[in-house]
Design a protein that fits this description.
Largest sheet: 5 strands, mixed
Order of helices and strands: HEHEHEEHHEHHEHHHEHH
Strand order of the largest sheet: 3-4-2-1-5
Length: 255
């Protein structure tokens, strides 16, 4: 499948006239709880030539390439990515930390450590908590629950707890989060659910787990209260990000 994905990336470059700087897996496969038929969520950062950025008219900064049962491929222009980085966008930090990398380059790796410095703990907590609460309200109140929906709540909730503990972006792998910040008495329950999820299809369901439901309800509320106590830090300036953009543009199109 990696070969198929790499070929798709080449097609995008040729047909869209872009250079892909970085491409990763971003979904359940990168989180470590893919089902037997999970699709591949490929995300990438690309850059266009200098003339593109000198146009007066507004230009599209997203490429949505493919969406089917096997592949979900889309990417962001480097300008868009850096603007979102300035706002400490949680999704972008996940891409930066993905354990499955399909494409990278020297200039991207040069600046990736600097990009990680734009993480804002309070912003990250709010973003992950919003995701967890939204998924809980929408999918965890029925008579049956899809296995994957439990993890779509658990993972962002544990990400909040990680940020509160370490003030850094959370790791992508769910089991790393679980080992560090999940309460010991919940680990057997979640481990069992994780094994069932991996063995099931994407549509696999289970009955509500009362122990887990109680834990989620309690901790969603507690995390909401704890975030208020987190120090609010000021955003950094755009200066360094402007320098990154210009150097990447110069390097890619002058070499």
């Amino acid at each position: 499948m990696r070969a198929v994905i790499e070929q798709k990336l080449k097609e995008i470059e040729q047909k869209e006239n872009v250079v892909i700087l970085y491409a990763v897996e971003s979904g359940s496969r990168a989180w470590g709880f893919a089902s037997v038929n999970s699709d591949y969520d490929v995300r990438f950062i690309y850059i266009r030539n200098t003339e593109h950025y000198l146009k007066l008219e507004k230009t599209r900064d997203v490429i949505e390439w493919q969406l089917d049962e096997t592949l979900d491929i889309n990417g962001w222009d480097l300008q868009k990515a850096l603007r979102l980085l300035h706002c400490s966008n949680a999704t972008l930090f996940e891409w930066l930390s993905s354990p499955i990398v399909y494409r990278t380059c020297d200039i991207w790796e040069k600046f990736r450590p600097k990009m990680m410095q734009y993480f804002l703990a309070k912003t990250g907590q709010y973003q992950y908590l919003h995701t967890a609460q939204k998924q809980y309200d929408r999918y965890l109140t029925g008579e049956t629950i899809k296995f994957k929906k439990y993890f779509y709540v658990l993972r962002p909730l544990l990400a909040v707890k990680w940020i509160q503990k370490y003030q850094t972006p959370p790791p992508m792998l769910f089991e790393t989060l679980m080992a560090d910040v999940l309460e010991q008495d919940l680990k057997p329950v979640v481990t069992d659910l994780l094994e069932q999820k991996r063995a099931a299809t994407e549509k696999g369901e289970t009955l509500p787990n009362s122990i887990l439901q109680t834990y989620l309800e309690k901790n969603l509320q507690k995390c909401k209260e704890d975030i208020v106590l987190t120090e609010t830090k000021k955003k950094q300036s755009y200066a360094a990000l402007n320098d990154i953009f210009l150097e990447v543009l110069h390097t890619i199109y002058q070499n």
